[in-house]
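Support request, please re-run this one:
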Amino acid sequence: MTCLVVLTFCFVVSSTVPAQTIQNPQLPQLQFSQVPPASRAKYTGDRFSYMEAGPKNAPILLLAHGVGANSMHWLYQYPVLGQRYRVIAWNAPGYMLTDNLASESPTCNDYADAMNDFLTSLGIEKVYLFGNSIGSLMSQCFAATYPQKVSKLVLTGTLIGEPQAPEAQKKAIIEGRQQSIKDGGYSFGSGRVAALVGKNTTEDKLAVLRGVLRATNPRGYMQAIRFAVNADSRTLAPKLTMPVLIFVGGEDQVTPPDRNAYLLKPLLAKVKLMELPNVGHMPEFEVPDVVNKAVLEFLAD
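Re-run finished. Output below.
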């Protein structure tokens, strides 16, 4: 791949990746914090939930999960990234035991403010930020709205939104997602999860993934879907002046790179793009050894 953008770097990782040595680590305990009173009217309740690993006095790495996931998604990151960072994985509004946003069609600003409310609830001023899928879109919203609070940004399963799609197509996307969650979280997680990952993912890994997805709450899920089809992170790119690392799965069927990551990359001032040819939508889950090593190097650089 040739890169023409100033301060832009590309590199490709061979499709032969190291063996995944981390096997089903124990998840951290689910914790809670209170929605700041000044923001309480934006939510249906007063509670954030999250998981945390690593030293309390270490630099903070905030993790933002995808649309069908939650803080359990990062089980392979806690034991490794937590050796060097205070790793905090939020549950977005409407996920796990975090209360929903009041709006049924939240905007980019709503999720950016929610992430800021979450950090405020923990007394945190600045983070490294790592988002997957819709979490990557929420992370872009936060980093553009509160750039002084984000040192570096990591994106996987990168999503830029569907703003150019015709209204009929947006409606079809929303209706299709509604159909997928209509029977509840357990049935949702029991569905065709193999589409989320590359073809080399083992059945053991798929079983873990099903367990993560079964925690999905329909209302929060659909709020996030409505946000995604109307967002356009390309308009945010000029504000994303911090260094950005983008992982691209060559088998990503959910957020195809040619319609997402590859469109975003030329708009960013300081970006590295790492291609993983035999990986799907969730590199940090599929090849955690590769991703964890690259993230540690990127954040320490």
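DSSP finds ten helices and nine strands in the chain. Residues 1-22 have pLDDT under 50 and may be disordered.
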